[in-house]
Amino acid sequence: MGEVYRARDSRLERIVAIKILPESFASDPGRLERFQHEARILSTLNHPNVLAIYDVGEQNGLQYLVSEFLDGHSLREVLAAGIIPRRKVVEYSLQICKGLAAAHDKAIIHRDLKPDNIFITQDDRVKVLDLGLAKQVSVAATNEGLTATLGVPTTPGTVMGTVGYMSPEQVRGEQIDYRSDLFSFGAVLYEMMSGKRAFHGESSVETMNAILKEDAPEILVSGTQTSPGLDRIMRRCLEKKPERRFQSASDLAFALEAPSAGSITSETVASPASTAKKRSQAWITAATLSVALLATAAAWLFTRPKSNNASFQQISFRPSYIRTARFAPGRTVVYAASINGQPMTLFSARTDTFESQPLNLKADLLSVSRSSELAVSLGRVFDSMWTPTGRLAEAPLGGGASTRELLDEVIDADWNKDGTQLAVARRVGDHYRLEYPIGKVLYQTAGYISDVRFSPSGEQIAFVDHEIVGDDRGTVSLIDLQGQRRTLTKEFESIQGLAWFPKGNEIWFSASDSAELNSIRAVDMGGRTRRVAAGAVRMHLQDIDEDGQLLLSAEDIHWQIGIGDSKSGSIQDLSPFQYEVMGGLSKDGNTVSLNSFDIAGDTSYRLYLQRRDGSTPILVGHGTATAFSDDDKWLASVDPAHPGNLFLIPTGIGEIRTLHAPAGRYYAGVSFFPDGKRLLITTVSAGQGPQSAVQQIDDGSVRAIGPADRFVVPHIMNLFPGPSPDGKYCIESDGKGGYWLQSIEGGDARQISGVASAEKITNWHGDSNNIFVVRNDGPNVEVTNLGLASGRRTPWMTFSRPDKSALTPNTAMLITTDGTRFAYEAHKIFSTLFIANRVQ
Fold it and tell me: How far apart are alpha carbons 798 and 816 in whole angstroms?
């Protein structure tokens, strides 16, 4: 396309490269357009693995482009010098993928990736060159996917690229997308691994025919260091159909970073430099990979001797939080994943080819019918970690525009045996109900219901019954279609995930009991419980298919708590334990109360005070942490074993006091009045709704406030404002999205407008006329000030965790009344899906 000169930039004292399109070539409209196109493409990219452009222009009829000067050799020249060491193959491949990912992020397809267009500098940095054939695309809002909108003008059916490295769709002159570059990369990777071309014939026609119809030959070159993991990656890139390849360069780069990509079949020892490089990888990748390695290599400790032949097949590979996964017809697994803190998105994975495909639907999965109909949850709101509610909808397995919304405030749902109706667990006001069919109440509780699953016969429904909202303690319960319910198990400390064994004689579930992490257990219809499998990682049972295969997610959980300064923006991480829950923030913003669950067998919820200076947390008692008193000398705590008991724990010297909820009720929310003599409480019971009241600390007497159909939002964590700073008001809800400013002494209440259903009121701001309103917007938390009298909203702060991988969408935030300090709790759950075979 032109001539390239080495030159010196006299202004910045640096060596550069100047690419010139001579005047004779500039008269060719096609060459001129490609040259100018390359300049435009390069100018949009800024990445260490893509050639950097400094300037572009025209002078005296010459078109020129000024770029960084590269000292080294093309990958073609490196290949000609001999076999590339396996370590270098992985290193070069990873850098190529990162360069491609940067281009793809700008909607740029290279279209001519080959060894000649990949440059290796003297210090082993990789640069992707020659974007003269690159095409820019935009994503069309249709099922057709990517539609070409910009780029080098071409005639439909024109073959663009270099024979031997083109994708099948390029060879056929079809429309292409980013996955075409991944095929070309696969051909380059094959050549780096073997020293030979993946597709080569006596003529261009024969080479293109091989691309369309033949697989790349097995790598059998003597002396070649083959890697099974790397070979699988290469083969997946070279799949003939785009949908069977990796779906993005980022996914491909993640696979290349996995240890399995670097392990070789011959006996070699990693060099110190290689070891140091691995140790320097981001902790987030290491944490994710550790889940997969532990779940695969640590194996399971089976209670039956004949069960030691279990095998495992990994299904998911990206660092993400996976809440629900189900088997679907046709060797398919469907799951919902949150990646980088973004809303849940549906994916499907083939169990025979390992690839995951996005279903183009932002939703959480609930159930899959035998006819491949999905029950999904749209717009889920995480009031707490374990009780997200959303709009129930039906959708075909392909996702898309045919989604049909059915019902609001749904936590869980499952298709019946015929796939014609759904059983649902939903929130109605202040209660949670199990309904089947929709509208017929089989069971109602002041706690909550999860993991709803029909029996194979369709005559019974199993579910997990949780006594306390916001707590994943629970029991396995069974109910028939007439509403006859019975509890099959004792209460487990943590229970998540439930499925029927195909014979219908047992219900399998994942639960934690004292001295172990969540393991797989089974209970029969007579209530006899056995442990099926336990291991070194937390296991979440997702599903069981008709052949008895288990769909599991191995989970590595990291709770993060910190205190931030709203003026300076500084954040102090205060995460002394792996499993911890924030209770309250002191009035001066220097201390958080938290519960830790790291010690197995301690079911009383150890209660700590954690100072902002990061000093060792102080154990002050037990119970579920709630609010501080206004002078920060007392802390309220609910007894988790007997939630009708409330402990008032001194933060310094003093004795613990105990209060009691009214008979038959238990505490669901507690906060102190400014005078330190009274508590604002919300209590609940199985037969009645929440009730808000004032409780005197000295004698324990209780006086109800507000109308019976409104209440201060019940929540053990103090994420809802207590009494106003002047002690005269509280904020009550009707449980349907409406809020009222209620006088403590009685009288008419004033409705509060301007708070959306997905938002939370977290505290008063400054005085009794303003409140903080918080919204979780994907990976970010948006905080605004709402004037109660004026209804005016003013942005106050946006909080975003720097590291969002595997971040769940329910970051909680507490703010001091003066707004100077805030505390946050973020949850990171690294989930890896596996299929387990031959588990008995």
Answer: 16
